Amino acid sequence: MYSRIPVPPKPEAPPAGLPQRSMRLWSAVRPHVAGGLAVAALLAAAAWLGPRWLLGPRVEASAVVQRDFVQSVVASGHVEAPHRVNIGTQVTGTVKRVPVAEGQGVNAGQVLVELESAELAAAVAQADAAVSQARARLRQLREVQAPVAAQAVRQAQVNLDNARAQLRRNTDLFNQGFVGQAALDEVRKAVDLAESQLRASQSQLDSARAGGSDEAVAATALDQALAGAAVARSRLVYATIAAPAAGTLIDRAVEPGDVVQPGKALMVLSPAGKTQLVVQIDERNLQSLALGQKALASADAYPEQRLAAELAYINPGVDVQRGSVEVKLDVPDPPSYLRQDMTVSVDIQVARRPQAVLVPSDAVHDADRADPWVFKVDRHHARRQPVRLGLRGGGLSEVLDGLHAGDLVLPAKTSGIRDGLRLRAAAVTAETRAPSP
């Protein structure tokens, strides 16, 4: 069996160029120099790593603050008048004149579009002639036919009286034997004929009198003619399209010479009145909304300008596709730069809490569950602290129980933190700490 004999390390060569005496001195002090360097390195490593080993890692912590807090619901939408009016025509025709321009303000009753009206005017004249004819027919019935019918009744009554007198005389002569049966029958036929003529004349008189059938027919014809004239006049009126209310024309899709027909919008009018902001709110915030809540809004085109608004309408239905609720806010004093359909951002103040204890929302674990908690700094240690939350918004959460102003909490995204871990906390305030997205 052979054993390996350890070979001593080769002594470090002295620096080149030393004299013989210096070389002997170098050999004597070299071991002491090497040992000193090792000790210095160990001391430097301890100075660098010692605090981390002994005091724990250095982490950023947020200070819990206490101040007035407003919970807000933020959403975006657009500017809209309470309603829009699509201006169209009710008759088919050719556009003669369009005296207004898009973007122009108009008054109620101001002419917007004129159509060619010669044919419509001729229809009105024809309808007026039909009315005159119906009135003349009714007048003729009352002034001519009724008196003639009355005269015919009187004449028929006289004829009947004469026929009856003749029948009485012939009956006496027949009883005395002076006339035969044939002559008596002829007289009786004459009486029957006179009675029939009287009944016919009376019927004609009854029909021609007020309330009779002839007068009813004539009066109905007059009413029909009047209705036709009204239709013709209304169609003539439709040839001139006027503004139904004061407002601003936000769209125009018609030019002179166009052939227009019902069902096509020629212009869109935004009536003067309340300006509203229409926004979509996530349905999760529905329980926080209430009519009358104040809000601040800004147009995307003018982000530095803030305008006051008030919640005026909450749609009773929920948009299934987007999971949102449409709400409308009144703008009591709209600025001049606000335009129809302009995009706006709205900040609705749904709750206010004076002197609330606030913690950054990104420091709360399980915030949407029944038992939220935070890592609280307690005497240089991380402690799991249950909390009870209240209002939330703007990157902050109200703490109803579990923390006090001045406490330090750790962001939830801080890695490597566990309950009881020793650490060194560097505090920043909730206002200066940027909330996590």
UniProtKB/TrEMBL annotation:
Where the record annotates domain CusB-like beta-barrel, the positions are: 277-349
Pfam families in the record, alphabetically? Beta-barrel_RND_2, BSH_CzcB
Q: Which NCBIfam families match?
A: RND_mfp
Coiled-coil residues? 124-204
Which residue numbers delimit the CzcB-like barrel-sandwich hybrid domain? Answer: 86-155
Q: Where in the cell is it found?
A: Periplasm
Q: Does the keyword Signal apply?
A: yes
For this protein, the record's SUPFAM superfamilies field holds: HlyD-like secretion proteins
List the protein's name.
Macrolide export protein MacA
Species this protein is from: Variovorax paradoxus
What does the record give under GO molecular function? Answer: transmembrane transporter activity
Gene3D superfamilies with a match to the protein in the record? 2.40.30.170, 2.40.420.20, 2.40.50.100, Helix hairpin bin
**Key words of the record:** Coiled coil, Periplasm, Signal
Any one GO CC term of this protein is: periplasmic space
Identify its protein family.
Answer: Belongs to the UPF0194 family. Belongs to the membrane fusion protein (MFP) (TC 8.A.1) family.
